[in-house]
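Notebook, bench 3.
Goal today: get a predicted structure for Cobaltochelatase CobS from Modicisalibacter muralis so we can plan the truncation constructs. The sequence was checked against the plasmid map this morning, with no discrepancies at the termini. Length recorded as 326 residues. Pasting the sequence as submitted so the record is complete.
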Amino acid sequence: MTDLINARPERMLSVRELFGIDSDLEVPAFSERDDYVPEVDPAYRFNPDVTLAILAGFTRNRRVMVQGLHGTGKSTHIEQVAARLNWPCLRVNLDGHISRLDLVGKDAIVIRDGMQVTEFQEGIVPWSLQRPVALIFDEYDAGRPDVMFVIQRILERDGNFTLLDQNRVIHPHPHFRLFATANTLGLGNLSGLYHGTQVLNHAQIDRWNIVAKLDYLPRQEEIEIVVARVPAKASERGRALIDAMVAVADLTRKGFATGDLSTLMSPRTVITWAENCEIFRDPALAFRLSYLNKCDEAERPLVAEYYQRCFGEELDESWMREASAS
């Protein structure tokens, strides 16, 4: 895809064949890949409802937001759909350091014919708007208010974007697509889990055409993903170990839901635990280093109980004595 601005999807693909979802929907796709297309992860497992929501964004130019707890794979889900469509994709993390100038653009000094001149450098928003790019605003609910109002301009159906400093109106490329991910859906840090998230303007949330919720995978699918990420655990013994690890993770999520725990195990944490098992050759030690030490001290005995229930053995006795003493 040598000329990105003039590129267009050249073919239609069956959702049933591409994602194994029982749907007659066909989605546009590019024939060639370029440097902006994410790499395909063959181990990734797609949530059917969320996949259809994202595909609606690609097919019908809907603004799609994916909401869910950390570690559910929200941004990766969008990227992996784009990867299978060969659709160029850019991901912007709206942390506190992203400014309005980063999104819109700013004047910069450049060298032209051996002389320094001031030239306007487009930000990521106008650059993406003019190309068939899927732009993902990651951690959408952590964006600064001045940054969020810049984004609000392109959430409308027409989505024209005005560069005030340039007296220029940018009309979106017909195959520009916009996505976002969020932990809290703009409600702020009510759970105490996501410090730095903002309460978002409801008028802006209302402009998102589709909001999909992504939960953690069913237990067996999570086991398969962990095994795919850590192939050394593909044996019968390894799978039994991963099964017990995912069982611990399930208990932490239920404990979090009932208010007994303030820190849950995401699938990312389970994968880290499995990887650390390969390093330390001790599931209990790897568990402490991967997850337990992140927990509040008052909650660690309960977490140790979860471990004992799933593994049939106590954690290291010295650690238990330290926990009791504290």
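Residues 188-196, 318-326 have pLDDT under 50 and may be disordered. The first strand starts at residue 11 and ends at 14.
Flagging this for group meeting.
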